[in-house]
Design brief:
Structural class: alpha/beta
Strand content: 15-25%
Number of strands: 13
Strand order of the largest sheet: 10-9-8-11-13-12
Distance between the termini: 76 Å
Order of helices and strands: EEEHEEEEEHEHEHEHHEEHHH
Radius of gyration: 24 Å
Bound molecules: guanosine-5'-diphosphate, zinc ion
Largest sheet: 6 strands, mixed
Helix content: 25-40%
Oligomer: single chain
């Protein structure tokens, strides 16, 4: 009888992998919260740096928790459903585009944020705050954006009016607020979650100067998941967007576009443009169409310069 073959060495015991979401990243250390709500401080495995991948707040990850004093490791990052560079966040599912009677609304920014949302398949919401200052404004905004694939909410962070409606709209989402400075984003986030953002932001500005980007955290409070980044303002169109794709992000034009004389029609003053006609008849907001043409011209410039 021959000798029995030596048994193969046992496979290395795989450490227990757990699942969680990055809620904060700071100096190469990431705070990850698991489904039970427990927090872990982790580092990212070197393979991510080699692949040029930076873990982002909002990322869903597999991780091995640390033991005692030892930190654990982020082992895998799940595919992202949305991705944003400024601010650097992953997987947001909702953008609350906030505007107010004061400061004077920048509707070009609103339109860009809508394009960004549709492009990334993020649900946009138009939150018209400070309705206490001008009760007519929410209705005017709703009218201008009718058919544009976005719900308008009238709010006042000051009086609390409309906040429950916003809270309901945010349930189940990972939400980011966006919009001009001073429209009341921090006040709204504070009113909804009880987190005071202002203090943190002011003290960090003083310490680190205004140019530095704030650290972003995902607040999980009172059944909501909100990024604490009131500084979000998005000024560029999605990079590398073919100009002819822009009109796809205007559901309010789609209803008329199939009647344009030319196919495809960019709705940029081509003869027989049904979108232009609809705007002249008051069926589409003329401001929306004018701003679309501004964005189209920006997209055309970007497209021409993309290999420079
Ligand atoms: P952010 O820059 O968008 O984060 O705006 P802030 O939250 O810092 O608010 C800017 C200013 O608007 C602050 O002075 C707030 O007190 C004020 N504000 C916020 N919400 C309301 C509101 O609903 N009504 C009124 N009248 N003022 C508000
Ligand atoms: Zn047209």
């Amino acid at each position: 009888m021959c000798c029995p073959k030596p048994a193969p060495p046992p496979p290395p015991v795989a450490a227990e992998m757990e699942k969680g979401r990055i809620i904060q990243g700071r100096g190469g250390l990431y705070t990850v919260r698991d489904e039970a709500g427990q927090g872990f401080v982790l580092r990212a495995k070197n393979k991510f740096r080699r692949a040029n991948i930076t873990p982002l707040v909002g990322d869903n990850v597999d991780f091995t928790p640390g033991r005692g004093e030892e930190h654990g490791w982020i082992e895998e990052i799940h595919p992202r459903r949305s991705y944003c560079l400024r601010p650097p966040v992953a997987n947001i599912t909702q953008l609350v585009i906030t505007l107010a009677p004061e400061p004077v609304p920048d509707l070009l920014l609103v339109d860009k944020l809508l394009v960004f949302s549709f492009h990334q398949r993020i649900e946009p919401v138009l939150a018209v705050n400070k309705a206490d200052l001008d009760p007519d404004m929410p209705g005017e905004i709703e009218q201008a954006y009718r058919g544009a694939g976005v719900k308008t909410l009238a709010l006042s962070a000051q009086t609390g009016d409309g906040l429950e409606g916003l809270r309901r709209a945010m349930a189940g989402h990972i939400t980011c607020f966006a919009g001009q400075s001073g429209v009341g984003k921090s006040t709204l986030i504070a009113a909804l979650t009880g987190e005071d953002l202002e203090t943190g932001e002011i003290s960090q500005r003083i310490r680190r100067g205004r140019q530095t980007t704030r650290h972003i955290s995902l607040i999980e409070k009172k059944g909501l998941q909100v990024l604490d980044t009131p500084g979000f303002s998005l000024l560029d169109l999605p990079e590398e967007m073919p100009p002819e794709d822009l009109r796809q992000d205007y559901p309010d034009f789609a209803h008329f576009a199939h009647q344009c004389r030319f196919a495809p029609c960019l709705h940029d003053r081509e003869p027989g443009c049904a979108v232009d006609q609809a705007a002249r008849e008051g069926k589409i907001d003329t401001g929306r169409l004018e701003r679309y043409r501004q964005l189209l011209s920006q997209a055309q410039d970007n497209w021409r310069e993309r290999y420079d």
